[in-house]
What does this fold into?
Amino acid sequence: MDSPRQTNQIRIGSLTIGGDAPMMVQSMAATRTQDIAATRRQLEILTAAGADLVRIAVDSVDDVKALAKVVEGFTVPLSVDLQENYRLAEKVAPFVQKLRYNPGHLHHHERNKTIEDKVRWIAEIAQEQDCALRIGCNAGSLAPDYKQRFPNDRATALVAQATDHCAILDKIDFTNYCVSIKDSDPHLVVEANQRFAAERPEVPIHLGVTEAGMPPDGVIKTRIAFEQLIPHGIGDTLRVSLTVPFDDKGQEIVVGRQILADIEAGRFRSVPKGFFEGLNIIACPSCSRVENERFIDLAQEVKEATKIAAEHDLTIAIMGCRVNGPGETDDADLGLWCGPKSVNLKRGKETVGTYTYDKVIDALMIELKSLIC
It folds into this structure.
């Protein structure tokens, strides 16, 4: 690598990340947390693949109850994703070693409290339970005030949000935290992380291209970002987010380690000519918010059906849930976000309609043909 990492070191249970510690490779359980057997199976698959840490999402008290049973007997360090309900931090912290909160979701609850008060409370819980924190910034779910301040500059908005939240934690002397800044566009991931690392070089960074989609495109997008950041000392832990069947989730760990090995050996992959030209399909990697596994098959069906538009500069987004789906499809030409029994189809920010899983492809193709004809 050209540049050594120079970030602070933080603790996540038995793990140390940052500084000269080895790069950590992690993933996330894709199943509904309340499906205890399936989520435990995810932990088994990811642990067997060599995951250093596994993240699980919770969004309700029932999720917390399930989490308590899911984690029994597992020794791999665990992180919990607080999703839109930061108030669950106190209930979940005893079961995990790390809490991840999204600054863009803190405004949803207890609107009478300031963002700073909410972050302070999360940090106090983390301190009491000896948990690390991740400030998880995502371009698809920016906090409203940052959207208003930087309406046409997502990279600046993301960096500003991340640095502001770091300042809140610094103010209360909480140091056991890292930051992630993610988007589905690897170029934006590179720009935003480079800028953040220049402003806060001591803060450990978790790298990822969110909603990278299905292999091989999802792997290529991720590799593009990682190859431009890691050799320059940016990145202390990473995740490869791929849309694959639940039993294949170990691929995320395998691919992550392969990319690290290639970078370490100087084996850089050139981007195929024209890779960013033509149709761009982005898809989330699935998590416990997905209410119908049919979403994964649907993503494959969309990829196959839309080959007729391969030469057109369009983006189609397929999102697996109704939490992030609506906002994270806004920038796509056509977007699908999935509920338990139906799929919402969008054209830009406007909703076209709601369709069953077996009918939505027909509706999608009508919209697609109107764009390319």
Observations:
- The longest strand covers residues 132-138.
- The chain has two domains: 10-265, 290-372.
